[in-house]
Design goal:
It comes from Halodesulfovibrio marinisediminis DSM 17456. With 574 residues, this protein is an alpha+beta fold. The chain is built from 7 helices and 23 strands. 33% of the residues are buried.
């Protein structure tokens, strides 16, 4: 071995080993102080990737547990409200039983009915006000396909609430839907006599005064009464389905009209309802109550009847007599012609030519109008007000009979044939309300009144209708013995509907409890697996730490010894 001064290889070796020992000692200190085996990607790149995926799954599962617990709290809120509704229904059933007996007078039943109506209103209030974290629970907002009114008064379509708890987005494994049906008094069939339907974005609705109608859990609407008949439908069919969610676009599917005494459904073409014409000019008079009527002025050679052509328009032809004529076209193109009870429906008649100098006189009973205008061929207009009448010239292109929000068009063509067009509903400045008002039980032909406001030029939508099988639902009042007796069975159905809702909620809650248990087990096992990959084994690491600490001390001592070796060369020199 050479004795040199410039290079000390033994010191270099000792220094390198000391640095290695210090590095290993630093890693052990970091692991022991953090408790983690993997503190950076350099410690274990593959292990770090697996650990982070497991951590993401664990945190997602834990949030899923919280989501499920929130859903349980929501369900318990809804169930608590339903328990209060249960008390109201039981009390209503008791009141209906009391009013159903014959030992009470109608005046006494009216007093009983006051509490009955209060209970019904309270059910609707609970339905509208019960919410969880701003989410309405019982007003149909969580019922798939139902319609409900939001806080701003806008009509919305309900949808089931989705509870998400899994780590992915699979519909069967990671989430499921909770649906809570509408339990308002109207939906349960025990409502009051007021139902509001919004027609379009302008907030316009129509007022109907007739038999009360109620909506069931399927969104179907039922007519109040003991199996009222619908003309032209199979026996026992009284249901009318209001498709409120389809009311955005203007249509002429169906429109309310004043004083309907009976209704007949006819095909879109070829059948006529007769109407008497015995004058030569059209006159309109508004009485002190604001009712507009068409009066007779002069004579004519023949009477005419009102025929429906293929285009869904009404034309005048020869025939018998009738009154209160009105037409609507449904979604399938069928025309419903409504006439009075003493009217006739003859075969299709031929249109009559009113002549170059003549016009028609039409008498329509019970139509509540405010203003009558006629538009001549040159564009000029005439107005008819209370107590004043005037002739319509033969060359007039159209005559509009307009209430504030109702327009009826009479057109006289170039061949002199007079045509009555379809009725349209126009947008009002302040809107109007659709109310299903109290009427006698079983009255299928109750009259309807249209209440309107200031007119404008824009048409709005009406509602489509279809027939379905009837069912028993409670009326709007137990002020009569018959109404109270009908309410007993209907309230029982309402209780069953409410119990069905509560049973569904209980099933949802039990399912969520099972889901929570499963999620917690998954989270526990994933956490254990992640710990085995990521966490440090303290006993093993402490053994390594002690070893590296000893090596570090030895390397330090040897480095000191190696650094002293060049001093021996000085002895030889000196």
């Amino acid at each position: 071995m050479s004795l040199i001064i410039n290079n000390n290889s033994m010191a270099n070796t000792a220094a390198r080993n000391l640095n290695t020992a210090y590095k290993q000692l630093t890693e052990s200190t970091e692991r022991l102080s953090s408790g983690m085996r993997i503190n950076s990607a350099a410690d274990d790149a593959a292990g770090l990737a697996v650990r982070e995926m497991m951590r993401a799954q664990v945190t997602t599962l834990n949030q899923g547990v919280r989501n499920a617990n929130d859903a349980i709290s929501m369900i318990q809120t809804a169930d608590g409200a339903l328990s209060v509704i249960d008390e109201k229904l039981i009390r209503m059933n008791e009141l209906a039983e009391q009013a159903a007996t014959g030992t009470y007078t109608d005046e006494q039943r009216a007093i009983i009915d006051q509490e009955y109506q209060t209970m019904a209103d309270e059910i609707t209030r609970i339905s509208d006000s019960t919410d969880f974290n701003g989410q309405n629970l019982l007003n149909g907002a969580l019922e798939e396909g139902s319609s409900y009114e939001d806080a701003d008064g806008n009509t919305q379509t309900g949808s089931a609430l989705t509870v998400h708890f899994g780590t992915g987005n699979d519909a069967d494994e990671d989430k499921y839907s909770i649906e809570i049906e509408d339990v308002s008094s109207g939906a349960l069939g025990v409502g009051s006599d007021s139902l509001d339907y919004e027609i379009n974005d302008e907030g316009l609705v129509t007022t109907k005064d007739g038999n009360a109608i109620y909506q069931n859990e399927n969104g179907d609407v039922y007519i109040e009464g003991d199996d009222p008949a619908v003309t032209g439908a199979p026996a026992g069919y009284t249901q009318v389905q209001l498709q409120k969610k389809d009311l955005a676009d203007p249509t002429a599917d169906d429109t309310a009209i004043a004083e309907l005494e009976s209704q007949v459904t006819i095909p879109a073409a070829g059948t006529a309802g007769a109407i008497t014409v015995d004058g030569s000019s059209i006159h309109g008079t508004i009485d002190a109550d604001g009712n507009l009527s068409y009066s007779v002025d002069g004579t004519a050679d023949a009477t005419t009847d009102l025929a429906v052509n293929a285009a869904g328009e009404l034309t005048f032809g020869t025939g018998g007599t009738a009154k209160a004529v009105y037409t609507t076209t449904d979604a399938d193109g069928n025309v419903s012609l409504k006439v009075s009870a003493d009217g006739t429906i003859p075969e299709a008649g031929t249109a009559v030519d009113v002549g170059a100098d003549g016009s028609l006189t039409v008498n329509v009973d019970g139509v509540d109008q405010k203003l009558l205008t006629s538009t001549a061929a040159d564009g000029s207009a005439k107005y008819f007000i209370a107590g004043v009448s005037s002739d319509v010239p033969a060359d007039a292109s159209a005559m509009n009979v307009a209430a504030d929000s109702v327009e009826q068009n009479f057109e006289v063509g170039s061949d002199g044939v007079a045509t009555l067009g379809a009725v349209t509903v126009q947008k009002g400045a302040t809107g109007y309300g659709l109310t299903a008002a109290t009427a006698g039980a079983g009255a299928a032909d109750a009259s309807f009144e249209m209440t309107v406001t200031t007119a404008s030029d824009e048409e709005i939508a009406s509602f489509e209708q279809e027939l379905g099988k009837t069912d028993e639902y409670a009326g709007s009042s137990i002020a009569t013995q018959e109404g109270a007796q009908a309410a007993l069975g209907a309230i029982q159905k309402a209780i069953e509907m409410k119990d069905k809702n509560r049973a569904n909620l209980g099933a949802y809650e039990n399912r969520l409890e099972a889901t929570i248990s499963n999620l917690e087990i998954q989270s526990e096992n994933l956490s254990a697996a992640e710990s085995r990959i990521s966490d440090v084994d303290v006993a093993t690491e402490m053994t390594e730490y002690t070893l590296r600490q000893t090596i570090s001390q030895a390397a330090t001592s040897m480095l000191a010894q190696a650094n002293s070796l060049p001093q021996n060369a000085l002895k030889l020199i000196g």
